[in-house]
Specification:
It is built from seven helices and nine strands; from the N terminus they run E-E-H-H-E-E-E-E-E-H-H-E-H-H-E-H. Strand 4 (about 50) and strand 5 (about 55-65) form a beta hairpin. The strands form two sheets. Strands 2, 3, 4, 5, 6, 7 and 8 form a seven-stranded mixed sheet that branches. A two-stranded antiparallel sheet has the order 1-9. The chain is globular. By secondary structure, the protein is of the alpha/beta class. It has one domain (about 1-150): 3-Layer(aba) Sandwich (Rossmann fold), CATH 3.40.50.
Length: about 150
């Protein structure tokens, strides 16, 4: 769990809409890991996102709340992500402007998964957690995960 008195942090996992039903095996383990580490995991697609004045709105999303093991379907869900993790959808699906607005609005750590990260998204999530810890000063409790360069040493 997060060791801080702050509001529950959240991680936003963005996938292309057509991937959500077909690739649950990719985003569900990341959501579970995030929820077990003390985050609310919000899973949605690009078309559902709208950055507002103070936060981000997802017209449709699935949320795995901190400490839970199942998703809740939500509509018009407002949040301010601490971590944004997405797949190749930023460039390939032409969502750079929306992505930048979300990052600017939330001042969050983000990751655009490259090929290696795509093949092992747990390492990509680990990088996000580490950067969140550095930026926020909060400790995220989780099982040890080694990154590629650490394994090679």
């Amino acid at each position: 769990m997060i060791t801080s008195n702050k509001v529950t942090p959240s991680i936003l996992l963005i996938f292309p809409k057509e991937w959500l039903p077909q690739r649950r095996k990719e985003w569900e383990p990341l959501s579970i890991a995030a929820a077990e580490a003390g985050f609310n995991a919000i899973v949605t697609d690009w078309d559902s996102l709208l950055p507002g004045e103070e936060d981000v709105k997802a017209s449709q999303c699935m949320v795995m709340f901190r400490g839970k093991d199942c998703f809740e379907s939500k509509q018009n869900f407002f949040f301010n992500p601490n971590i944004v993790l997405t797949t190749w959808g930023v460039v390939e699906y032409r969502h750079r402007e929306l992505f930048n607005k979300i990052i600017d609005k939330s001042n969050s750590y983000f990751s655009e998964v490259d090929l290696i990260g795509y093949l092992d998204s747990k390492c990509e999530l680990e990088k996000c957690f580490r950067n969140y810890e550095l930026k926020s000063g909060c400790k995220v409790s989780r099982p040890p995960t080694f990154l590629y360069d650490e394994i090679q040493k």
